[in-house]
Batch of 2 targets.
Target 1
Amino acid sequence: MTELLTGWITHQRWFAGKGRPIDDLTVESDVELSPGLRHLIISVRQAGADDRYQLLLGSGAEESARFKPAHIGDGYYDAAYDAELTGTLLQAMASGRDLGPLRFRHLEGTEIDTSLRSLVLGAEQSNTSLVYGGTYICKLFRRLTPGVNPELEIVTALARRHSTHIAQPYGWIETDLDGEPTTLAMTQEFLSNANDGWALALASVRDLYASLNPSAAEAGGDFSAEACRLGMATARVHHELAAAFPTEVIEAQEVKRMIEDHRRRLALAVAEVPALGAYAQVAEEAYQRVTDAAREMPVQRVHGDYHLGQVMRTTSDWVILDFEGEPGQPIAERRALASPLRDVAGMLRSFDYAALHLLADHPDADGLRPRAVEWAELNRASFLAGYSAGGGHLRPEDAVLLRALELAKAAYEVIYEARNRPTWLPIPMAAFQPDR
Ligand SMILES: Nc1ncnc2c1ncn2[C@@H]1O[C@H](COP(=O)(O)OP(=O)(O)O)[C@@H](O)[C@H]1O
Ligand SMILES: O=P(O)(O)O[C@H]1O[C@H](CO)[C@@H](O[C@H]2O[C@H](CO)[C@@H](O)[C@H](O)[C@H]2O)[C@H](O)[C@H]1O
């Protein structure tokens, strides 16, 4: 079995250790959830470090043949794809059952319809999501880090405050890893009539590029009213987070330490992507300006990896998803208090991404670039106006911090793109312009 899993796991989209040989793979936990369905936690050793992953294991030659994409071998398959078996997860959450070391729970006062059948969501990335009857989405966290997942922590806290900007949580699955309660999966309301912000923004950019009208504000698919509404929703969620979790005001000294940390990360990004070295001075100068003017700074829980792909427009307003922080960071860091402007900076970067990404293969890229810049500027400004109008704290003197946080995010994106989508690398690189 371990040999089989070793061969299979390296081809999975969510496997974080691609490209490095697996030295050892062990099954750490193996629990039968229902006849034919097992829950496995496996530990993978690569270059002396261990990573844990979870897997729903189905067995049976006939079933395995039916779920070709989920085929593991020897009659075993990834049972996340088997709707005949995944109902067990909903049923166990609904009844609040313990199955061996696994605890299935639902949010107090919620009812779960256990008759719904699941489908794996096409956009699988670092996790696997099961959509039950277009009503619930159950996200299985594939790579496991000990601790309560910040997504579960935040969404349940905001649900208790009746936030209208989150997808209603229903239930979760947990176990103990290294003595810590650890989230394995989370079930939320599936927003079946919503579009994600990235798709909506790209539709607007596409419309602008195709239109004869050269102005972003006057083109048919103008996004700026939505960008403004998104800014308002962001400010409201920041208020809700500040009310639900502790907040602090950190001293100027602490702000300087934060900037030192960004400097270290920039150096790591340059080491990994040497071409960034030519532009690093732009970030250095922005960081220095924050250090020179360092003052007290309010910090609180934030989203942590805020971009257009994490927000969905429903028929009534914007809903924010995936409060998990930056994937790959330790949980303590993802839960750490930070300036809410970090999220604002993340979304500003996303407007640049949306504007520039369609230019990559465009035959008239040079001619369209001024429109791209105008689109990004208009929507960035609208988002900021909405953030202020929604009660977000944004003073003129925050511009220096915001610029530094944007460049810090761009440095993170340089590494992300170099590792995952090298052809997208020019997008974050373009953020390092001295004249912005
Ligand atoms: N509650 C939801 N309702 C509808 N679609 C969702 C929901 N949660 C996630 N999605 C869809 O799944 C995509 C990926 O979700 P996300 O939580 O960002 O996963 P990952 O952590 O793997 O990036 C989103 O862009 C969205 O299209
Ligand atoms: O959504 P995830 O939590 O997996 O976040 C990671 O992947 C994102 C890409 O899917 C990445 O976001 C970057 O690309 C987006 C366009 O695809 C863009 O809107 C964002 O602004 C940009 O940062 C994110 O950084 C990464 O953590």
Target 2
Amino acid sequence: MTPMAETVTPSSTSGTTTELLESLDPLLREWLPRQRWFAGKGRAVTGFDLVAATELLPSEGRLGLYHVLLRVHQPPVPGALPQPGDCYQLLIGVREALPPRLAPALIGHVVDGPLDGRTVYDALYDPRPAEVLLEALRTGARVGALSFERDPAHEIRDQLVARLMTAEQSNSSVVYGDTFILKLLRRVTPGVNPDLELPLALAREGCARVPAPVAWLRADLDTEPYVLAVLQPFMNGASDGWELALRELAKGEDFTREARELGRATAEVHTALARALPTVTLGHAQLELMAGGMTERLTAAVQAVPALRPYETGLRSAFEALADLAREGQTWTAQRVHGDLHLGQCLRSPGDGWSLIDFEGEPSRPLAERRMPQPAVRDIAGMLRSFDYAAHSAKTPAPDWAHACRAAYCTGYAEVTGRDPRTDPVMLRAYETDKAIYEVVYEARHRPEWLPVPMSAVRRLATPDLS
Ligand SMILES: Nc1ncnc2c1ncn2[C@@H]1O[C@H](COP(=O)(O)OP(=O)(O)O)[C@@H](O)[C@H]1O
Ligand SMILES: O=P(O)(O)O[C@H]1O[C@H](CO)[C@@H](O[C@H]2O[C@H](CO)[C@@H](O)[C@H](O)[C@H]2O)[C@H](O)[C@H]1O
């Protein structure tokens, strides 16, 4: 690959980029809602605002490349207050025609403006533009509002070949030569992003359970910067916990040894986070607020997915029990947590055991909420739900397998922290219930064929005697 500096003269938003976006408007209205990472599914796209466009390779060449931040206008979610619209990050390539290997990346053919007759596509599918990003990170480039920054302690080799990951994701990731992985966040918000903040804090603490950020991309647009992408070492040969669990389940194999190790790894990360970042004590007022938030999410979820209605009262009792304990004066320690921990966020390397990735939190929650200290039990509840998810998505549901893994996970956690999460049943049930409700909404929106999996948990959690 030729380094960017030798081949392009990057510029920020220009007349060409503004006109490009005008001619792209009808194409993006059709293409964007079809993307896995598009969060506004189910609501029409009524228009766009260009937040920023940066030319990375000039469109006069054989290959044009634009970095684009786009605010999408959509009607508000029913019952919710009107919001400004989500901002998405796109890397748009421009070519005369697409070679067949890039067919899945097609956005469309431009029919007017300066690029009339040219083809535009999602450039992350294309090694060359993806390599332009790595080169910019390697050299610490600044282009328009974009700052490519790196931790000088890590070396980034050049000439690494890029390939887009094909996994189902909320964002998009590119692997470079099996050495690094770049996660390009798709829906972006201004402010400190926990997906960079927490791994950096853990790296400073010397916690080896999380790959340390090597470089990142920022945009300085509003008063607060946007974190747009994070580069980390690629754990070559690692398997994700979800795949491993399903494989063992299919063979009827025990997974408790792995689950216990995973409990230990989670505990190590929690301990390091509690050392690295402030902890607080949650008293009566905060706990009532927390239980109230869970109840509100339940109400919104029932509106979005009416199949939840018969279970609403039973589910709500989990949150009422939490509020009752708060009123009795019980307090909890809160700390920074992962926020969306499940088997798919755990990678196991043959030599190094388990690592945790993806500290973004639940993508649909506001950033400020995701960054708040919370009881560590929240992550544990996420993992317990995940063992249940695996067991209930298998051809033949395997509740005993889930039960054994859940117990082993808690045992492993207790071995490191000295505190068994099962001694906290009210908080655990409240968080498991909250998570299962989140999953119902998530699946209804993104993968409707998966809906029966969290719904089976909803039935059990609404009737605790069944669990
Ligand atoms: N450091 C890494 N090494 C190897 N694979 C990784 C690494 N980070 C992420 N992955 C792979 O990429 C996938 C998506 O990463 P993730 O951070 O969960 O993105 P998203 O937020 O889009 O879901 C993971 O499921 C995992 O398979
Ligand atoms: O990995 P993401 O940050 O994108 O998380 C979202 O998608 C997950 C699915 O890909 C979803 O997780 C749910 O399904 C998993 C199996 O695919 C299972 O392991 C999890 O336990 C279950 O919650 C996650 O909730 C969502 O935020």
